[in-house]
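Troubleshooting: if your tokenizer reports a length mismatch, compare against these two reference records.
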Amino acid sequence: MEKQISIVVAASGEIKDIGISEGATVGEVMKEANLVGYQLTRKGGELLTPETNIFSMAMDSEKFYATPEDVSVGGGDSVPRTTLGMLNSRISDFLDKTRNVATDQDNKTWGDRSYGLKKKVFNL
């Protein structure tokens, strides 16, 4: 039994359709696709090692993604999720404080305050 998979190559967008048979590894598939120096990931960023048995895990007609090995995908030197979460939290805090300044000043609503700003800036 053979399965067909597609490998989407980063940057070029080229799609390589490959037939794999039982016992095929990621390393073998990458060699066959002439993608030595690339790493393979699944949708969602799951990085597959060269030793991974791709046949047992792949669905027929599944798409995989090839990126150069020096580019991090979802790990390694990429920004950790905790850092992104902290950044997102700080942005939310800033926006909340900005809204509070605009709504607290002169007990006006945000809409009234923005109109007041337009009036001052544009001399309306």
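Reference record two:
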Amino acid sequence: MNRQARTAHTARWWQQAARAHAQLSAGIRPDTTWSSFTMDPGEVAFGNLMIQDIDYSRLIVPNPVHYHQPGRLVVGSPQFVTGALLGSMAAGMLGRRRARKMSQPYWEDPVGAMVTITDRRLYCDAWGTALRFDYAATTGVDPNLGCSQVTLSFANTTPLRLTGPAAVLVAVFASHHVHGPAAASMPQLAALRQVPVAVGVR
């Protein structure tokens, strides 16, 4: 896909997201669709995102790594002892710095995913296994439309980050289902409110 085609492709996602944002803000339910995932009774789907349009990534939180430097006995001339102590101090600093780095959380490499947006949750399939992320367990939605990504935090599992042209649509539905009416004026979604759309009436 060349640059012009990519731009047009992204613009279509923005148009779809802007329309959904306007509809949800006005209390109008967007069009529903089918889902390849097994949903709960009464659950409805609003969008199916393919692997070429959305990437999936989780925050990895390693177990703390502690550095322990064993003591040692150094015998020799004053210069030798001083050099050994300085070398031991430098090695200790390096070991502690490496341990801190290994203990830091990091985002795993993103991978293409299939995602379905419903009125109750997100379904994600990135490794052949369907995972569900309920809005009821979501503690935060952080859209970054300029980077084409949205990050969701949860009460009972590690954060989820979705990136790609379709992430803007996830950002809209997740924001509205988690934050309710406050999503209509979220600053992170302000750019969508500048996109002219026909909201439609049901």
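Descriptive notes for reference record two:
- The first strand starts at residue 45 and ends at 49.
- Helices lie at 3-25, 78-103, 167-179.
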